[in-house]
Structure to design on (654 residues):
């Protein structure tokens, strides 16, 4: 099985490539070849599987056609610019997040001759915009309030329609906010959800800009990779024509995040969280989904790696910190 | 006020141009100029208002840019290929129904300098696909099961996002099935809803291919024009960011349609309906919406011209048959 990952240099793409390298298979099928694409050079994972690294832009139509011409069996489409950048640079957002997706699916269609790869499109809870119910169900309508969310919603629609027409075998999965996101603190409005766990565990002080009653929807990077693997290998006949699914996650308040950190790491760690309310961030976050009912995904076999937010913290300590942290 | 109608040679476009010509104004503002575009030459309405007729394709990007360069105040975007054709010709459907819409809104954006026209996008109940509730509410999710429905849903999303970014002042209205559609019987699967009224009134026999308990969602051509006029002149601030609205209509069964025809025109007319069940059409129609709750549209002042299906028949007799029919 030949696997193509678009956006393989990103956090989730890199972890997915590493996991596939480690497992050596996707579902029950051996991985015999991997192609890792990104606009910056992807890292070569440690594996005996033949890996090709490709540095190109998803809006380079010829380059995308060339990637698809090798007829990968499964394509993970993770390439996108993030919410904040898509909002700030309108043209770039539509070009990469919408046209890039169109180039991919049209390149697949152009191959013809019965070529019908599994395409896993990573969507986002940004397809939902306030006001919405406390728990967003599987049939709540898409009302994106950002260009990024609009582009992801359109991607979902295209994946469903191309699938319905038999041009590919697609599935769109809406990832929760990934927590704990490794690496440096970023300036995304959502950054604090990860920062308040990651930085204290690294012995650093961190600012909490919102009140502790802010509720949000989380999944660990390990869960995100698990969702992708399942989407890449599951029997898609069970899905039916509605090919976009909200993924399972954990709904917790910031206060519950901190209490979990306290249980897992102790008061000396949570003491590094400094409360500095920021009205702008508080306002942005107020428009974000807080909780979901993801019955369809659960029924289709998508599961999280964590049962509690304590687990999310432990996964971070295991996967990113080699099992230890700064007490 | 300068009004541009894209798709002005179509049934609804023609009626809209005629109504604007007759009224001489849109809302409270005088119409001082009209530009009527279609891929086939639009008819010149009988009016003293200066009218420009433009024959061009909506996927002729330069031609669309030229139409927009005149900075019309209100743009009615009715240009589209219909459901059956978009399904049969995948490329043409995406080109005209999606790219054509993108060319329009990008041409508007390219003008800049504060140019922000009202854009009324005609969408469709085809944004919904079965299974759905008996009555589809304002928050039910979009699950198109045709390429046409997919393209209309994407159009709605783009109109909302461009509006949110202040690039235009858009509104998408989802028209019910238009009944009674004048002209020749067409071969669209939905054709019989109009055929069974129009043909008997013209003294002709007609085939009813489904059972009388089939329920569907209708509005007269007069109502459709009324929705467009209201969308073109209303205060859009009241809508909020969710710029797509299901329009009001009437939910009736085929049996109720025939009973209404009986009341309005008599048994000699309904005797011209021949029941010849067609399993293919019955199957297609089974996946169509049957009824809606359109609270948002009603609250925003959208109203139908008819209270009963009897009214729909009377409107057809008045507007298309000069007040009489073949008894």
């Amino acid at each position: 099985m030949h696997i193509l990952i678009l956006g393989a240099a990103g956090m989730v793409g890199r972890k997915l490539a590493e996991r596939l390298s480690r497992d050596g298979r996707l579902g029950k099928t051996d991985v015999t070849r991997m192609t890792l694409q990104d606009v910056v050079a992807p890292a070569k994972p440690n594996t005996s599987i033949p890996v090709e690294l490709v540095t190109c832009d998803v809006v380079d139509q010829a380059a995308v056609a060339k990637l698809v011409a090798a007829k990968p069996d499964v394509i993970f489409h993770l390439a996108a610019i993030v919410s904040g950048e898509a909002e700030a640079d309108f043209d770039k957002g539509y070009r990469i997040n919408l046209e890039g997706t169109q180039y991919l699916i049209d390149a697949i269609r152009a191959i013809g001759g019965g070529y019908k790869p599994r395409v896993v499109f990573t969507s986002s809870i940004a397809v939902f915009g306030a006001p919405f119910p406390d728990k967003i169900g599987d049939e709540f309508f898409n009302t994106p309030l950002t260009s990024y969310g609009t582009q992801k919603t359109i991607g979902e629609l295209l994946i469903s329609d191309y699938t319905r027409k038999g041009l590919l075998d697609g599935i769109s999965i809406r990832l929760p906010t990934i927590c704990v996101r490794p690496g440096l603190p970023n300036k995304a409005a959502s950054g604090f959800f990860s920062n308040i766990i990651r930085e204290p565990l690294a012995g650093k002080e961190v600012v909490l800009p919102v009140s502790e009653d802010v509720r949000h929807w989380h999944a660990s990077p390990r869960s995100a990779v698990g969702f992708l693997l399942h989407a890449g290998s599951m029997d898609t006949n069970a899905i039916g024509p509605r090919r976009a699914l909200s993924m399972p996650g954990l709904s917790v308040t910031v206060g519950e995040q901190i209490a979990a950190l306290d249980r897992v790491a102790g008061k000396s760690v949570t003491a590094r969280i400094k409360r500095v309310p920021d009205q702008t961030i508080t306002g942005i976050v107020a428009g974000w989904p807080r909780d979901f009912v993801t019955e369809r995904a659960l029924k289709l076999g998508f599961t999280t790696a964590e049962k509690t937010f304590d687990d999310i913290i432990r996964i971070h300590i295991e996967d990113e910190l080699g099992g230890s942290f700064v007490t």
